[in-house]
Write a structure and sequence with these properties.
T-cell activation inhibitor, mitochondrial; 16 strands; coiled coil; alpha/beta; globular
């Protein structure tokens, strides 16, 4: 923190006036915005590339804006009036994939305290820390009218000068911010053009060293985590421990240590985990596969409560085949499946979803009949029942996805209009999955990759197109050896060195 006095030297000086400035330090800004960063950090949206990219881009612009305020006490001409951010609707398991889009305002002022308060208020976060900070506004010099001093400050501000330059002396009171909006649009356009012109080979040349350094730097940590995983697995009598929450390996180590500490504090309380598969995931419960899921954001007490009541969750798990069979019989032997490439579901919630959709169909059949155009047997088709907020769609793999709260009439109408589409996509996927597996194995061998994965958003046809291009480009020397490669929708090097490339990368 710095406190200093300086003589006023503006073009419109106030005679004999002294201005008092208190500059907020970068550490104070980081502390004030810590709750905000925890809510919008891109690492929290690993399974949702669109939301991750929006938050990542907005954080870069916010960082540049804060840096300009702290170091130069000015507003960048490229700074927009608002920045979009996605935040989770809630931490409830059924809302994991539901987000709210918020607009964070960037005040046209060099008062950093006011800016921090507006950012936190836009996300309904506490401003207690900011409110306790001393004001950063310049004090009004003695003997000077407050209104005149404010006008002089405005005239000397960067914003005022840039607005005048862009307006070319014209009076545009109704469009004061247009120059900034236009410049920001131009800035966004330039970013888009750079991305469009970015080739894979060019991008790799710029980032492969960073990826290699990060990968090697984590090797020792990964070895330590693997040893810790083996020790905890053996100690608790588990089949295996899986990490499936999208965070980095350091977070995995923290989860393992928390579980180890829980076993030390409550000896014997974790006996229910014996011969089970434990997964650190996005919710706490028992999955449809019978795996014990522990949410990495939960406190140890919640983990312990689940482990003590595993029998209750297992009872729901045992009922699932009967619920699925009942729904299948109502819908002419349609197959009841689980959605491919999606996060795990909780057995207790899934049982409730099956009961709801079956009841809705029985209510419909009490008033109407199935369409005459339907085949007498629907066993060729596969139905997936999801949460109340789920989609109503045909997946790329040919599955018929329906939300649990879908009314019977709407469901019947949807099936009538999409059975043919579902069958076509299903046949296409059955053919493509074998091609994808073959291309996957060839790419791992040819490029000597440590691993090759893909995001849930990358369908088999997109993955095939990407892998075929990689193999055809391989002869020209793509630098991918000893890297972990993920096919997604954007370019990035993750903290653990994983290289992310878009499936539609350019030659």
């Amino acid at each position: 923190m710095y406190i200093f006095f300086r003589k006023c030297t503006s073009r419109h000086p106030v005679s004999g006036a002294l201005q008092f400035h208190r500059m907020i330090s970068s550490s104070e800004v980081a502390t004030a915005l810590r709750p905000f960063y925890f809510a919008v950090h891109p690492d929290l949206f690993g399974r949702y590339p669109q939301q991750r990219q929006v938050n990542e881009d907005s954080l870069k612009l916010l960082s540049a804006h804060l840096e300009s305020l702290l170091n130069q006490q000015r507003i960048l001409p490229t700074t927009p009036r608002t920045l979009p951010f996605y935040i989770r609707a809630s931490n409830a398991p059924q809302d994991r994939g539901t987000f709210n889009l918020i607009k964070v305002p960037l005040e046209r002022t060099v008062d950093a305290k006011l800016l921090l308060r507006r950012i936190l208020e836009s996300c309904n976060l506490s401003t207690e820390y900011v409110d306790k900070m001393p004001s950063t506004r310049n004090s009004t010099p003695s003997g000077t009218n407050a209104g005149d001093f404010q006008q002089q400050q405005q005239q000397n501000s960067f914003y005022y000068r840039k607005r005048t330059e862009y307006n070319f002396g014209k009076d545009r009171a109704d469009d004061d911010d247009a120059p900034f909006e236009k410049e920001f649009d131009l800035f966004q356009f330039r970013i888009k053009k750079v991305r469009e012109n970015e080739t894979l080979k060019k991008w790799l040349r710029k980032h492969v060293i960073t990826a290699t350094v990060r990968t090697k730097a984590l090797q020792e940590l990964q070895e330590e985590v693997e040893k810790l995983r083996e020790d905890v697995t053996k100690r608790l009598g588990l089949r295996e421990i899986i990490y499936d929450c999208g965070w980095n390996v350091e977070h995995f180590r923290g989860c393992l240590k928390s579980l180890e500490k829980l076993a030390e504090l409550h000896p014997g309380a974790l006996d229910g985990l014996k011969d089970r598969t434990l997964v650190f995931a996005a919710f706490t419960g028992v999955s449809l596969e019978g795996h014990v899921m522990l949410f990495t954001g939960d406190v140890q007490r919640n983990w312990l409560e689940l482990i003590k009541t595993i029998d209750k969750h297992d009872s729901y798990l045992k009922k699932l085949p009967a619920y699925e069979y009942a729904l299948s019989q109502v819908l002419r032997n349609i197959r009841i499946g689980r959605r491919k490439f999606m996060p795990k579901a909780q057995a207790m919630a899934y049982a409730s979803h099956l009961r709801k959709i079956t009841t809705a169909l029985l209510d419909y059949l009490g008033r109407s009949k199935f369409p005459k155009a339907w085949p007498q047997d629907l066993s060729k088709f596969e139905l997936v029942v999801e949460s109340e907020a789920g989609p109503l769609m045909v997946s790329p793999t040919g599955q018929l996805i329906v939300p649990a709260t879908c009314p019977g009439s709407l469901l019947i109408d949807f099936l009538t209009n999409h059975l043919a589409e579902a069958l076509d996509k299903q046949n296409s996927y059955d053919h493509q999955k074998h091609i994808e597996r073959d291309l996957h194995a060839r790419c791992v061998a040819q490029f000597r990759l440590l691993s090759l994965t893909k995001d849930d958003s990358v369908t088999p046809d997109r993955m095939i197109e990407c892998l075929e291009k990689l193999l055809s480009e391989g002869a020209t020397g793509l630098e991918l050896a000893d890297l972990n490669l993920t096919i997604t929708t954007y370019y990035s090097v993750l903290a653990d060195g994983t290289v992310c490339i878009p499936w539609d990368w350019k030659h």
